[in-house]
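TL;DR need structure tokens for one chain.
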Amino acid sequence: MRKSILFFLLALCLAACNAPPLYGKNAEEFLKQKGEPAELIEALKRRRPIEESDAQRLAAYGNVAVKHLVGANPGTPVSLLVALSRHEDSEVRTGVAVNENTPLDALLSMRTRGVYTTVNSMLARNPKIPVEILWEMQRFQEASLLDLGLNPASPPDLLRTVAKKGTSLDRTWLATNPSIPEDVMLDLAQDPDELVRQYLARNRNLSDEARSLISP
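>> reply
TL;DR here they are.
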């Protein structure tokens, strides 16, 4: 049991976060050295909207972690998001890829067809991506089932595919998705993996029937 939990936590750090803690740590250290206000740094780390002028100034720094967080911030102006979507460093583009304010054409321009990439992985989590493209990404394995299972805009049949074909880790994160259909929710409520059931219990749309199966 302890071994499985350690594996889960490792996988969480590597795959499940849109803005991994390392970005926040690196950005914080860099921006403190530059004398940026603590309130602004905290807002950037927690993805609270920042002022457009602040976004422009921070993006001018050469620090990749800062650019990633600016790209992911809901306060970043569209023109800057488009510019960052063309950045040569994929770690900058992953921030832009999860931002729902990024224009669709800019999002799709970052997609690499037919292969898995970290940018594709983040795109697959963005509710703005059209359903037909999410299906393509699943078919050609451009993103993981975990990524597609996290997207609240993934269609019911795609979420069923994640539940059927995914690993226990995939199902754990699927269980947090507020859009999972009732039949999937009931199956997850009886999943043999305790972590899946624990995460499902936190789902804000958990049905009474599913709740009764988790805690009979």
